[in-house]
Design goal:
- The structure is a single chain.
- This protein is mostly beta strands and 226 residues long.
- The chain has two domains: 20-119, Alpha-D-Glucose-1,6-Bisphosphate, Chain A, domain 4 (2-Layer Sandwich), CATH 3.30.530; 139-219, Protein Transport Mog1p, Chain A.
- It has three helices and twelve strands.
- The strands form two sheets. Strands 1-2-6-5-4-3 form a six-stranded antiparallel β-sheet. The protein has a six-stranded antiparallel β-sheet with strand order 7-8-12-11-10-9, covered by helices on one side.
- The longest helix has 14 residues, at 160-173.
Length: 226
């Protein structure tokens, strides 16, 4: 799946995944535009880094860049021609520590390129700092920046009531206020809306077989000039 490029850069002060070093040396054409980089993604506890850009260069000059870049790394490489036009649009490389994936799609008069580097094991002690503050006892499962802000998913063995209390307290210490306590079902789910300045934070907590899953969506309004 190709994400929109040029939407949001990751906060520069947060701890990145180990794969951020691999992004630093990733080749891009001179006309690369709308560059998007996020080296703090977590999907199912697995660390991921992504780099995306748009370019007017043809695919046949783009894909060889990544074949050359990865060919000396131990692992298996596979290219795919998904639309049977004789040109590979997807390149995958599976290594010992990281899986690498590049996909190129047509975008207007040029192309959109998405590069993903994903760990083959769950995040270790150097897992990234959560985009949003989490209380102790919560495990970060998923987080990603997007056009409207960020999304964070975590879970905890705490009960729904205790988890809700801990999350609200932690966010309040970070400057968030409770604007609305929305729909709830005792022992099943709780929805809360919080605010800080012009930002909105929507919380959904759901009891799930002995754990509580927390999903937070932080919505950040675009700059006034947009």
């Amino acid at each position: 799946m190709l994400l929109s490029v040029g939407v949001l850069m990751a906060p520069p002060n947060a701890l990145a995944n180990d794969c951020d070093d691999a992004l630093n040396g990733m080749p891009m054409p001179a006309d690369a535009a709308g560059v998007y980089r996020d080296d703090q993604i977590v999907i199912g506890g697995i660390p991921m880094c992504q780099l995306a850009y748009t370019t007017h260069r043809p695919i046949k000059t783009l894909m060889p860049r990544y074949e050359r870049h990865w060919r000396d790394i131990t692992g298996d490489m596979l290219a795919q021609d998904r639309d049977a036009d004789g040109i590979d649009e997807v390149l995958m490389h599976s290594g010992r520590q990281w899986g690498r994936y590049v996909e190129i799609q047509r975008s207007g008069s040029g192309h959109a390129v998405m590069i993903s580097i994903m760990g083959v094991a769950r995040a270790d002690a150097r897992s990234p700092t959560s985009y949003l503050p989490l209380p102790d006892g919560f495990e970060l499962l998923v987080q990603q920046a997007h056009r409207d802000g960020v999304t964070v998913v975590a879970d905890t063995p705490l009960t729904l009531a205790r988890a809700t209390e801990r999350v609200v307290q932690r966010l309040q210490t970070a400057g968030w206020r409770v604007d609305e306590r929305g729909a709830r079902s005792a022992g099943q789910y709780q929805r809360i809306t919080m605010g800080r300045g012009a930002e909105t934070l929507n919380l959904n907590l759901i009891a799930n077989h002995g754990t509580t899953e927390l999903t937070m969506h932080r919505l950040t309004p675009p700059p006034a000039h947009e």
